[in-house]
Amino acid sequence: MYVSMESFGLQPDGGEDAALAVLRAIDYCRGIPGATLVFPEGTYHFWPEKALERLYYISNHDQEKTRKIAFPLIGMNGFTLDGQGSTFMMHGLTTPFVIDNSSDITLTRFTIDYERSTITQGTVVQADESGFDVSISEDYPYEVSSGKLIAVGEGWKEPVKGIIVMDPHTKAPKQGSGDILMWGYYDRGTVEESGKRRIRYSGFDHYSPENGDIVLLQSGYRDCPGIFVNNSRNILVEDVDLHASIGMGFIAQNSEYLHLRAFNVMPRPHSDRLFSASADATHFVNCQGKIELENCLFENQMDDPCNVHSIYAQVSERHGEDLLCRLVHPQQRGIQVFHPDDRVRLVRNDSLLPYFESQVKAVRAINAEYMLVELEAPLPADVNGGDGLENLTRTPDLHVHGCVARANRARGFLITTPGKVLFEGNVISTPGAAIKISGDANYWFESGAVRSVAIRENVFEDCNYCYPFWGRGIIDIDPEITNPESFEGRYHENIAIERNLFRTFHPVLATGHSIAGFTFTNNVVELSDRYRQADELPYVIDLKACSYVEVSGNRCQEGVLVSRINGKEIQQLAAVKE
Amino acid sequence: MYVSMESFGLQPDGGEDAALAVLRAIDYCRGIPGATLVFPEGTYHFWPEKALERLYYISNHDQEKTRKIAFPLIGMNGFTLDGQGSTFMMHGLTTPFVIDNSSDITLTRFTIDYERSTITQGTVVQADESGFDVSISEDYPYEVSSGKLIAVGEGWKEPVKGIIVMDPHTKAPKQGSGDILMWGYYDRGTVEESGKRRIRYSGFDHYSPENGDIVLLQSGYRDCPGIFVNNSRNILVEDVDLHASIGMGFIAQNSEYLHLRAFNVMPRPHSDRLFSASADATHFVNCQGKIELENCLFENQMDDPCNVHSIYAQVSERHGEDLLCRLVHPQQRGIQVFHPDDRVRLVRNDSLLPYFESQVKAVRAINAEYMLVELEAPLPADVNGGDGLENLTRTPDLHVHGCVARANRARGFLITTPGKVLFEGNVISTPGAAIKISGDANYWFESGAVRSVAIRENVFEDCNYCYPFWGRGIIDIDPEITNPESFEGRYHENIAIERNLFRTFHPVLATGHSIAGFTFTNNVVELSDRYRQADELPYVIDLKACSYVEVSGNRCQEGVLVSRINGKEIQQLAAVKE
Q1: Domain boundaries, chain B
Q2: Residues of A in contact with B63 (CB under 8 A)
Q3: Cα radius of gyration rounded to whole Å, chain A
Q4: Cβ(A404)–Cβ(A370) under 8 Å?
Q5: Alpha-carbon distance A235 to nearest alpha carbon in chain B (angstroms)
Q6: CB-side neighbour CA atoms (13 Å) of A81
Q7: Are B252 and B220 in contact (CB under 8 A)?
Q8: Residue A120 confidence class, pLDDT cut points 50, 70, 90
Q9: Interchain pair B50, A366: CB under 8 A
Q10: What phi and psi, each to the nearest 5 degrees, are found at residue B28?
Q11: Residue B178 forms beta bridges with which residues?
Q12: Which residues from B are below 8 Å from A367, CB to CB?
């Protein structure tokens, strides 16, 4: 059944606050499984004032906050939203989409944008030895107070916490910049007003952008992801563009069967904007079933295009047969990591290797940080505080194909799932590693070990141009194990890299450790001169604490391409078995 | 069935964090209707770290925050907690008790206290023309930063927002002080460190405390009421002392049949503390059934001993047959004011008089501020934005007897309920009005009009000694109606004040307007010299826009006691009918 927004008194391009009319239309559609809510093409505006409010703990976002939601798709079973090409323009701290406790949802044919996101864009003018001026257009209100720059939006103010330097020619992060003016580095500088819509930075002795560089001044809020999916299944997002979000473009947790087809995170077209989402383009936490990213564009977002992982809870204390577990990372707090019947295992803090496996019998959430977990099997005597408890059930398969990722800050695809991973036919050009396969139980607490990863027939175009900020190799496999050679077991298994084209100025193709089963076969390597090469050329493939390694059938241009496998140097990429 | 805390591994006076053991004991008792959880006598400590966390919107407290709860009595039906004389000592921002969605709960024989509340106590030394020093003991950590004083607790810091000046002889607010160094007045001053554990205030040109005065420096948090009751029925709190809370002592909303017997809000005995709760001692919002306060002591809390009211929602817009209503006061946001089948009425913004009555059919909460309300009857054509929507169902009867209230900041008993009110046999000595009967739909939004109030056989001892800060008459009836004489209808009805003893230096016994049915009969008035009298003596009873007034049979000492009833001056209190 088709339901038109016009029957709820909302006209396209009317300029009024659409939040209440949309809420009423969604309430109406909730009673009609299979309903399609249709928007006549136009621009619709959303303010937080009369938007539905809910408390959600959203992984990797700011926690313990209620959020105002433009499209609260809560408890919907069988629902399609067809924007027919409309633009949904957000104002203030409005979260565009929440899909919660829902199934069989399709979102299609619309654009999400913000009138003012938390990125402030400016142009560097008058850079000299003592500092540099930034000219900022009226689209980005700000204040300067006590030497600090504060971004100002509708109903919010937030200090700027870093500068991302963009190259005006490539429209991407500038080689040599990386995070060199972010966070702690940023705090070294001070700001003063130096003219109308003009500020001057000084105090950065370690780096300066140049005249003409574009700077993206990032504020800290991560309140409003574009689309948040919680506890839901069978979600299709198709032909949706996201030009801005205050947080990630798409974030799903505890959900299954998620398909993004032509979900394009990219700057607003026909504008001078060089930013899209203010954090990752897509992120999947504790999901299961299958995740498919198909023909998506991930461009100019302020963090990685994709991250798939679950969460290590840290064992705090044993209470009889209950484990008191803690979610250590502040942005993971409040996430329901374990559910009755989930398969789980305990891993050691240092090796990340498992030593006990069972099923969850009961979970008692205490607060956002702590929970009591009871398992079906009796606990082993040697369970230690600091060890990790990992969910084996909530580990999805992942299929990424036909996607393009480029010009963002940071890395490419972060893959930490034991499910079957197929990464094929993508074109990647990221300032850090294009693919990162990590896992750690001490800082980010992102689990778990991979079991089957195929990376094939992709094009890696001049990745890692902000080396050494965001990765070592173009494919970087670096679980956080301090002394990998001191353990016999291998954390990751079965990573096959085949038939890819590496067109690269930075010929460090793969780095890694703690892998059983690594093949690098039938790839083509072409050297490029698009960026300056580092003075010292590291190993083209550099692996340690690895077993079952095969490197064979690769074609590469002339040049010294030396690899190192478990401490042994090997010339060229032709044929190695270890 | 008796359950001892010892079976959960908790020893009295053990010093450890009791939160997790208490949570497990409560979880256990939830399965045993009628259980009594018994604490071996001793002191038990509670930190927030491992305490249960929930989001609650608590009326008249800080909103949109999750709270960590020491005793989360959620979904309990038939439960007694017997402390056997124990002390529950709170640390950091821990909320002691939440009773939510529960029935038939008894709390008895314990003390609630905080190691460090948000009140910082000090002694004035070296007061002179330019300012005054305050000596602060090590019990109250603080910082001075940019001319501001910041109270420091376990895990929190909060700027001081005002000074309450206490008389070292009476241990009560000092005559002439009131709120004269609070909020905006406080912001005129600055602070600097003037020695070890010593600060100096300057910049208050309008008032200074004197050497030896005790000052209570109040920070703003209202996060942790002592006992919060939500959506529950049949609650008895008996023989419970509360020495500190970061918020109110007891606050109930949307609950019924609440009985406080010997619930004593008072400073920690055998200490030099002159403060108890940091806000009202008790507060009841949108309750129904009966509220009984019996033999309670309300002493030295930083706001009124008791306030009973419902909430006017403001009509924002009409949407067809739905009313979009708004909770305007920030501390009322998120409270579920209306429920299906509640009887409600619309009142005019200026007169507060009703013009339409119906029943609630459906409520759609949108966010903490807005809701859509659908009524059973068709809406009248002349419903206006700004009018109030009032709940007539959630209006409790109130019986206050045998209570003592004294030495607190602000007023006495605030009564705004159409239920039957009986206030008898209490002893009240408050710095403002002893009883205040108000109602307003423009600032506090506290409803509703009284229908039957009997105030009899109480002793009012030198109330209003901080006049003019917190009331006009000892009994002050002041609904917020700007031009009461311009309306024929009367807001309040049937207030009978009889057989009370007013022993008072300030012979303004009753002030009021907009009342139909006011009797002041057979009271005794004795003049006291405990405080300085105001130079100009106002009317002893001062009423306007009142009907059915009777003043008769009162006995009073010699002296000119002139009343004014609807503009007419009347000598003495002997016999007036109007």
Answers
A1: 2-116+222-303, 119-219, 311-391, 405-577
A2: none
A3: 24
A4: no
A5: 25
A6: 26
A7: no
A8: very high
A9: yes
A10: -65, -45
A11: none
A12: 50-53, 66, 68
The CATH number of domain A2-116+222-303 is 1.25.40: no
Q: How many helices (H) and strands (E) does chain B have?
A: 2, 50
Which of B50, B317, B328 is the best mutation test for A, with the most CBs of A within 10 A?
B50
Domains B2-116+222-303 and B311-391 share a fold: no
**Helix (H), strand (E), coil (C) string for A370-411:** EEEEEECCCCCCCCCCCCEEEECCCCCEEEEECCEEECCCCC
Structure tokens at B207: 């008032």
Eight-class DSSP state of A22:
H
Which residue, B201, B244, B246, is CA-closest to B220? B246
* Residue A467, token pair as written in the block: 């080396």
**How many residue contacts between A and B have a Cβ separation below 8 Å?**
49
- Residue A420 identity: K
- Asked whether the beta carbons of residue B51 and residue A27 sit closer than 8 angstroms, the reply is no
Q: Which residues contact A266 (CB under 8 A, 6 or more apart)?
A: A241, A242, A243, A276, A297, A298, A299, A300
Q: What is the DSSP string of B318-330?
A: EETTEEEEE--SG
Among B50, B319, B366, beta carbon nearest to A370: B50
Residue B169, judged by CB atoms within 10 A of its CB (0-12, 13-18, 19+), counts as exposed
Q: How many residues does chain B have?
A: 578
- Check if A362 contacts B (Cβ < 8 Å): no
What count of Cα atoms within 13 Å lies in the side-chain half-sphere of residue A477? Answer: 31
As its CATH architecture, domain A119-219 has: Beta Barrel (2.40)
With tokens 């084209």, the residue in question is A501
Distance from CA of B384 to the nearest CA of A (A): 19
Mutation site, A27, A52, A57, A66, interface B, largest B CB count within 10 A? A66
C-alpha A250/C-alpha A225 separation (Å) is 6
Tell me which architecture the domain covering B311-391 has in CATH.
Beta Barrel (2.40)
Question: For A132, what's the count of Cα atoms within 13 Å in the CB-facing half-sphere?
Answer: 22
Taking an 8 Å cut-off on Cβ atoms, the answer to whether B64 and A66 are in contact is yes
Q: Which amino acid is at B290?
A: K
B317: contact with A, CB 8 A cutoff? no
Taking contacts as CB-CB distances below 8 angstroms, the residues of chain A near B369 are 49
Structure tokens that stand for A76 in this block: 């919907």
Mean pLDDT for back-to-back runs of 10 residues, chain B (578 residues): 95 96 97 97 98 97 92 98 98 98 98 98 96 98 97 97 98 97 96 97 96 96 96 98 98 98 98 98 98 98 98 95 96 96 96 96 97 97 96 98 98 97 98 97 92 98 95 96 94 98 94 97 93 83 96 81 91 63
